[in-house]
Design a protein that fits this description.
This protein is α/β, with parallel strands linked by helices and about 350 residues long. Helix content is about 35%, strand content about 15%. Strands 7-6-5-8-9-10-11 form a seven-stranded mixed beta sheet, with helices on both faces. The chain has a four-stranded mixed beta sheet with strand order 1-3-4-2. Strand 9 and strand 10 form a beta hairpin. The longest helix is centred in the last third of the chain and has 19 residues.
Length: about 350
């Protein structure tokens, strides 16, 4: 798959490529970021901005997007990142933003993982990321995956990468479009560039166990978000701080990966429910699970819930990146109870 290309001149792109020149309007935006006392309607703002622009020599960047056959002229990477994260401050401080940008993250499974990637890139998160999924986009995925009708039949990893690069062309992505398996999972987690955080959004229970064993050995934290109707379950396992911590909070410590290879769907669902914790499931999720294979084909997932899950994972990663408090444990984001009554 082709990545965006940073060009030295317009001539390096095909003649048929459309040019979008966003450079001048970007510099105008930069003026207001660097001069926060001004608003667009402040008296004297236009004159001050014109003076600023006449003296500003910020370098530009030409970015060619092969899948759009489009060249975008904008500001250089450093300025672009400053501008794109300007509205994060000071909810996220400049130092915190840099630490968040520098952390290396891997996301395996691009259903909820698609929302994780979206939340990470929107908030100015990791520049270096590994993403993995062997599957292709189906119409039934479009209720939650960052994809469009034209993407149906395309590899999920490719679609996810393009969504990232459309917003952050400077992102350094490693695409595992054949997915991960028992043979390559260790390479995905520990191979160059080695991950600082592993995000597990895989369906394969054996790989879930294997990945945690690897992460525990190499002291890499694992984060997992699980859809639960309108609610979200967030699991944080800080193997970087607790080298002997039991995987999945000790819920299936007795299970071995080889025991999970030949599970039928009923046994898979039973074990998955055991991991999630039946006591946390919403009533509608419990009802839905009992209807799988009868009136519905698989576990239901909502796009709104996936968005919340992605935000929760991104928050946890940002806390870890900045060595802030983010203990191991299970966290429940409960809309059904917390938003049931206004105060």
């Amino acid at each position: 798959m082709e990545k965006p290309r940073i060009l030295k001149s317009r001539e390096e792109a095909p003649k048929s490529a459309k040019l979008v020149d966003a450079y001048k309007v970007s510099l105008e935006g930069l003026f207001f970021i660097n001069n926060p006392k001004f608003k667009s309607d402040t008296p004297g703002a236009r004159e001050a901005m014109e003076k600023y622009l006449s003296k500003n020599n910020s370098p530009d960047a030409l970015i060619y997007y092969p899948w759009h056959n489009l060249v975008v002229r904008t500001v250089d990477e450093e300025t672009y990142f400053k501008m794109r994260t300007a509205r994060n401050r000071n909810v996220i401080t400049e130092e915190e933003q840099k630490n968040y940008r520098d952390i290396k993250v891997g996301v395996a499974g691009l259903s909820v993982g698609s929302a994780v990637l979206s939340a990470l890139v929107m908030s100015g998160g990791p520049k270096i990321m590994k993403i993995a999924d062997f599957d292709t986009v189906e119409i039934s995925n479009l209720n939650r995956i960052r994809a469009k009708l034209k993407d149906v039949g395309s590899n999920k990893t490719h679609i996810a990468a393009r969504e990232v690069w459309d917003l952050d062309p400077f992102a350094d992505l490693y695409l595992w479009d054949a997915g991960v398996n028992e043979e390559n999972l260790k390479e995905f987690i520990t191979g160059a560039p080695s991950l600082n955080v592993f995000v597990d959004e895989m369906d394969n229970l054996a790989l879930k166990i294997i990945s945690r064993s690897i992460c525990r050995e190499f002291k890499i934290p694992v984060i997992m978000a699980t859809d639960n109707g309108d609610n979200v379950i967030l699991d944080v396992e800080r193997f970087d701080l607790e080298a002997e911590r039991p995987i999945f909070h000790g819920l299936i410590e007795d299970m071995k990966p080889e025991e999970l290879k030949s599970l039928d769907f009923k046994k898979w669902l039973s074990l998955a429910t055991r991991i999630v914790g039946p006591e946390y499931l919403t009533e509608r999720m419990k009802q839905s699970l009992s209807e799988i294979g009868k009136t519905i084909p698989s576990v239901p997932q909502l796009g709104t819930t996936a968005s919340i899950a992605g935000s929760a994972v991104a928050y946890a990663i940002r806390k870890i990146a900045n060595s802030q408090t983010m203990p191991s444990g299970r966290y429940i984001i409960d809309f059904e109870n917390k938003l049931s009554n206004a105060i």
